[in-house]
Write a structure and sequence with these properties.
The complex is a heterodimer of chains A (about 110) and B (about 110). Chain A has about 110 residues and is mainly beta. Chain A has no helices and 11 strands. Chain A has one domain: Immunoglobulins (Immunoglobulin-like), CATH 2.60.40. Chain B is mostly beta strands and about 110 residues long. In chain B, a hairpin with a 5-residue loop joins strand 4 and strand 5. Chain B is globular, with a radius of gyration of 13 Å. Classes of the chains: A mainly beta (about 110), B mainly beta (about 110).
Chain lengths: ~110, ~110
């Protein structure tokens, strides 16, 4: 069964304290792996799509990496405005394009 | 990029009343459209998707239905709401070219 597991469920950091969020996945064939940021009461905001093991993408303080079994979202020197829930989702190769399988999310809190 | 509008943003409905949530997409044509539901503290669950006008596929059996009367309009409906229908409903749009999946701002439904 295809599934996505994110850890930790919640993460509290001090401003400037770098860390990583994990997304482990099991899927028969991977077309893409997506990372989204979601603020309370808002829709998910697209961050990255990764397609193959070894691929990396960066945006400001965020860097996403992908292996055959997991993805990491690295946050370097976070700021309070990085506080949000980060969602990981896989796009199986056999699925119609927008049918994603989501993890439960990691709630990140960055304190000044 | 695409913009997805959802309304209403928030509604409180009594058990047994009807429901209509609307989603419209700007900035693209012939998108694949999706309705997801997000229960509190949980990941997103796909409810319906549509690859074209009048074409609807249901992912889970439930009290809801969907319709696509126009290329960039997607509607989620119910004839009689249940308490378990409460949640955060998200509309999403995807096109194979670019393979990015965008979400709207969501509609909060509370059934009382």
């Amino acid at each position: 069964e295809d599934q996505v597991t994110q850890s930790p469920e919640a993460l509290r950091l001090q401003e400037g304290e770098s860390s990583s969020l994990n997304c482990s996945y099991t899927v028969s064939g991977l077309r893409g792996l997506f990372w989204y940021r979601q603020d309370p009461g808002k829709g998910p905001e697209f961050l990255f799509t990764l397609y193959s093991a070894g691929e990396e993408k960066e945006k400001e303080r965020l860097k996403a990496t992908l292996t055959k079994k997991e993805s990491f979202l690295h946050i370097t020197a976070p700021k309070p405005e990085d506080s949000a829930t980060y969602l990981c989702a896989v796009q199986p190769i056999y699925n119609q394009g927008g049918k994603l399988i989501f993890g439960q999310g990691t709630e990140l809190s960055v304190k000044p | 990029s695409q913009t997805i509008h959802q309304w209403p943003a928030t509604l409180v409905q009594p058990v047994g009343s009807p429901l209509s949530l609307e989603c419209t997409v700007e900035g693209t044509s012939n998108p694949n459209l999706y309705w997801y539901r997000q229960a509190a503290g949980r990941g997103l669950q796909l409810l319906f998707y549509s690859v074209g006008i009048g074409q609807i596929s249901s992912e889970v059996p439930q009290n809801l239905s969907a319709s696509r009367p126009q290329d960039r309009q997607f509607i989620l409906s119910s004839k009689k709401l249940l308490l378990s229908d409460s949640g955060f409903y998200l509309c999403a749009s995807h096109r194979d070219s670019g393979n990015t999946i965008y979400f709207g701002e969501g509609s909060w439904l509370t059934v009382v």
